[in-house]
Amino acid sequence: MSLKDQTTLRIVLYEGSGAQPLSTGDRFTAVSTLLEKGFALTCVGGAGRVAGADGTSLLVLGRFDGGRTPQVEDANGAVPIRFQDIDGIDTHGVMDLVESVRAEAKAAKHGEWKPWFPVIDYDRCTNCMQCLSFCLFGVYGVDEQQHIQVQNNDNCKTNCPACSRVCPEAAIMFPKYKAGPINGDAVSDADLQREKMKVDISALLGGDIYSLLRERSEKAKSRFSKERDSSKALQERQKCLTKLAQAGDIPPEVLMSLPSPEEIVRRAEEAKAKAQAALLAANRTS
Amino acid sequence: MTPTPRILYCHCAYAQIVPKEVKEAVLKKLCESNAAFDAVADLCEMSARRDPALKRLAEGGAVKIAACYPRAVKWLFHAAHADLAAEATEVLNMRVQSAAEVSAALFHPDLKPNLPAGKTAPPPASESPENEAREEMTNA
Fold first, then answer.
1. Average pLDDT by consecutive 10-residue portion of chain A (286 residues)?
2. Hey, is the C-beta of A37 within 8 angstroms of any chain B C-beta?
3. Cβ distance B102 to B92 under 8 Å?
4. How many domains does chain A have?
5. Which end of chain B is more exposed for a tag (fewer CB within 10 A), N or C?
6. Contact yes or no for A52 and B27 at CB 8 A
7. Domain containing A68: what range?
C-alpha cells in the first residue's frame, strides 16, 4: 500500500474545562512518548490556538472530572471522536490504549519506513528533467503540465542523495541529509559554483555512466564466457561501485543492490526516453 | 487585534539530525508553558504520505514552526498540497539554533515571517484520476 493511502489518528491531550491538568513532568513524558511512537498530537488547555479539525479520527485523552468522559460527537458525522480517561494510568498504559485505538481505526503504524525521499524546490527547479533521466527507480515523473514531480517517494533508496547531485540548480533536497544545501539550507553562490564543478559522476568514470556500464557488461560477457569467474566479476563491480559511492555519497548497500548492468541500461534508457518525451511535450505547450 | 500565532513542533522522530538536547529542551519548554500547541512526530513522514493533516496545520492563520530549515519546511508542505502562507509563517530551525533561541522566538508574540520568497510554484502531484492511475501503473 502506498504511504499516502493510509489514514492517521490525531491525539488530543485535553486539560481544559471538565478535566484536571497533568503535572508538567507527566505532560512532557506523555507528549514525548507519543511523538517517539509517531503520533501527531494537540495539547489543549492553556492559552492559544491550535489547528482545526479535519476528517482525521480523534482520540481525546484527559483526566476527566470524576472519570466521566464527555458525550460529544461531530454533528456532521465526519470526524470519529473517542474520549479516554487517563487518570491513574501510567505512560505505558496510555501507550497501550492509544495503540489499541490506532489498530481499531486501521490508522497508519508509524516508524516502519524512514522518510527518505527527494523534495523539489520549485523556486530553483528549471524542469530540465536531469533527475527524471538519472533515477533508475522511477521516483520521478511529470504531471499533466509536464512539470517534474516526485511520484513514487517510497521507491527512493534510503540515504542515497545521488539525484540531488546531478541537479544543476541544487533544487533537490533531502531534508534528513547531513549537509547543506541538500538538507534544505539556503543555496549560496559558493554552493552554486561548487554545483557547477561538482561531481559529475559520469565524468569521474570517464564518460557517460550508462555507456560505461554497457561497455563493462560487454567485456564481462566476453570474459565470463572464457573464465566463468563470478567472484572476479563481483570484485570488478565493487571497484566500480566504490568510485560511484565516493563521488555521490551513495551508500554502498544501495549500489550493491543495483540490478545487473543489462537491467541498469534498460532502466536508464527507459528513464531517458521518459525525460525526453516530457521535455518535448513541455516545449510544445510553452 | 492580531491573534497570537499558533505553535507547531516537529519532533523529527525518524532521524538523528536535530540535536536531541535541543528538541527535548524546546518540547519541555512547551510543556511547561501551558500554551496550546500542535506537535507532530515527523513532518517528512507526513509529507511523504501526503497526510491531509498538513493542510489543517498550514491553514488557520499565523503559525510558528519549530522544525528544520525554512526552505525544506516550505517545500515539504507544498509536496503534500498544503502550501504555507509566506506572510504568516515563521520557521525556527532546531538544527542550527539553540533551544533558548527557538523557545524565545516561539513564545514571542510577534511573528517574523521567514519562508524563502520565490516564484509561483507549479502544482505538485495532481490528484486527478489519470495521474493516480499513472502512479499505480508505475508502482506495479
1. 68 93 95 95 86 85 90 74 93 94 86 89 93 88 92 90 88 95 91 58 47 58 48 54 66 71 76 84 77
2. yes
3. yes
4. 2
5. N
6. no
7. 3-104
